[in-house]
Amino acid sequence: MANIFENSFLTLAASTAADDSGLFFQKMDVESSKAVELTGSTADGRPYCIYARRPIHHYLDDDILGSHVTSNWPLITRAWVFQERLLAPRVLHFGKELVWECREASYCECLGASHRLKISHTASLLSSSSDSALHDHWRSLVMEFTWLRLTHENDRLPALSGAAKKFQMQLGSRYLAGLWDDNILEGLLWYAAPERGQEEQRYYTHRPSEWRSPSWSWASVEGPIQYVSNTKAWTSGIEYNAVVIAAECIPASADPTGAILKGHLVMKGNITRALLRHKKSFPDQPSCSYTVTWLAGRRDRVRIGSNFTVNGHDANVDFDLIESGLIKPDSDMEVHCLRLASTQSPLRTFCLDVALLLGA
User: Which residue of 156, 200, 217, 277 pairs with 332 in a disulfide if CB–CB is 3.0 to 4.6 A?
Assistant: First the structure.
């Protein structure tokens, strides 16, 4: 499927259609799309005339998929479509207006959009790009990709396999369930992220119903993930405190970038005991992993706080340990932490640890 889109001449996208029975064009609101004539005079008395219309929301520009994107451009919320957009040389989106995407430019009819996904992706895969820049771009793609929706959970790795092959041609590195062998320590610095701004006090990331990858891979959770940081200024100051001894993934087919049967990672580093604690932020809230609070009475500004701590420090967990039954609300349990890396800022030192649940 990836080869079909990559070798296509033009891909037509019914971006406003919710399923395969949808239409290419969305019914226009004629009145709202009409141009309005505004007249007046300048300070020196010269008359002027301005024509204006209501702005069109360009949903392809949104980096966070909220309910407004889902309802208006549902096609781009699909994980398979993300890869198809990256691979296809040219894409023409049908919606309230036509939107053109290719590897060199992006335009819409009103000239108000600036979609950079394909352009940035093409630039990152140039032969002049360094391995460091390629890894930065890969992590950015992964963070965007994991926000998207799949009908079948087991498609998480296959839905990105075509893009992975393009990176592998440039890197010449082994692909390990969404991570790269030559950059695996940086690849491990991810954490599960709650969906922002949707349904207060709800945490969406969870384990898939069937095993699909080892727990050290971002593909082991169903839902959005974030990397600790994806800027060279930050990652260049990281000191790694662990060493990878061996890593291997057994593919489920002839495709090494697709689904896998099993995988393992052997590491060497310092392990310490710690106390993982859950505590509700507010007494009347559900026993979830995160608490969403709205700032200054504005619905578009949110703060997400973790309800878990490790030795008193905020901790991100891969999935909701309360719902899975691994820990009870307002309680604690002993864990073992492997320190992966640390970095310093002018204010404090950040330590990046992986907690291993006892008995898991």
Answer: 277
